[in-house]
From TrEMBL:
Keywords: Cytoplasm, Phosphate transport, Transport
InterPro entries per record: PhoU, PhoU-like_sf, PhoU_dom
Organism superkingdom: Bacteria
Gene behind the chain: phoU_2
Subcellular location: Cytoplasm
SUPFAM superfamilies in the record: PhoU-like
Record function comment: Plays a role in the regulation of phosphate uptake.
Gene3D superfamilies on file: Phosphate transport system protein phou homolog 2, domain 2 (1.20.58.220)
Species this protein is from: Streptococcus pseudoporcinus LQ 940-04
Protein name per UniProt: Phosphate-specific transport system accessory protein PhoU
Length: 217
C-alpha cells in the first residue's frame, strides 16, 4: 500500500473514533438529562442506542487489527493504531455507564425523590460531559499539553462525588421515604465518577499518541 493510501486509512481510523466519541457524548448528555427530568422515554432511547456504540467499537477493533496485520505499521503509525484500539474501549465503557444511568431513571419511576440532590447530580453530569468533550477535542488535535490540563479536572469530578454523597446521606435522614432513590443516587454518582476516570484514561492515550510515553495522569 502506498504511503498516501496508508495515511488515508489512518485518517479514517481517527475519524471513526471521533464519530464514536461524539455518539457516546450525545448519549451521556441524554442520560443525565433523562435522570434529572425523570424522562423515561429519553432514558429508553439511550439504552437502545448502546448497541450503536458497541458496533462502533467492534468496527474500530476490526479495522485496527487489519491495519496491524496487513500493513505492520511501526513507530508513530503503530502508536496511532494502538491508541485507537485502547481508547475505543474506554469510550465504550462511558457508553455503558450512560446506559446504566438511564436504567436507574426507569427504576425510579414513582419513587420519592430529593430535588436538591438531583440538582447537584445535574451539575456533576455537566462537568463530566465537558471533561469527555474536551478530551475528545484534545485527541483530534493531538494536544498532549491540553490532555494534562483535562486530566487534572478529574479532581473536580471526585470532589462532586464525595460532596453529593454526603449531601444525599443528610437528605435521606430527613426524608426516609427517599431511601430507594438514595440507593440509585449513589449508583449514578459512581457511574459519573467512573466516566471521569475514563476521560482521564483518554488523556493518557493522547500523551502516548504524541510522545510514545505510557504515563498515569
Amino acid at each position: 500500500m502506498l504511503r498516501t493510501k496508508f495515511e488515508e486509512e489512518l485518517d479514517k481510523l481517527h475519524n471513526q473514533f471521533y464519530s464514536m466519541g461524539t455518539e457516546v457524548l450525545a448519549q451521556l448528555n441524554k442520560s443525565v438529562r433523562a435522570f434529572v427530568s425523570h424522562d423515561r422515554d429519553l432514558a429508553k432511547e439511550v439504552i437502545e442506542a448502546d448497541v450503536i456504540i458497541n458496533e462502533f467499537e467492534t468496527k474500530l477493533e476490526k479495522k485496527s487489527l487489519e491495519i496491524i496485520a496487513l500493513q505492520q505499521p511501526v513507530s508513530n503509525d503503530l502508536r496511532t493504531v494502538i491508541t485507537v484500539l485502547k481508547a475505543s474501549s474506554d469510550i465504550e465503557r462511558i457508553g455503558d455507564h450512560a446506559s446504566s444511568i438511564s436504567k436507574a431513571t426507569i427504576r425510579m419511576k414513582g419513587e420519592e425523590r430529593i430535588p436538591l440532590v438531583e440538582e447537584q447530580i445535574n451539575l456533576m453530569g455537566k462537568a463530566v460531559k465537558h471533561m469527555v468533550e474536551d478530551a475528545l477535542n484534545a485527541y483530534i488535535t493531538s494536544d498532549d499539553v491540553k490532555a494534562y490540563e483535562i486530566a487534572a479536572h478529574d479532581e473536580v469530578i471526585d470532589n462532586y462525588y464525595r460532596e453529593i454523597q454526603t449531601l444525599a446521606v443528610e437528605e435521606i435522614k430527613k426524608t426516609p421515604d427517599a431511601a430507594f432513590a438514595g440507593k440509585e443516587y449513589f449508583q449514578v454518582l459512581m457511574y459519573l465518577e467512573r466516566i471521569g476516570d475514563y476521560a482521564r484514561n483518554l488523556c493518557e492515550w493522547i500523551v502516548y499518541l504524541k510522545t510514545g510515553k505510557i504515563i498515569e495522569l
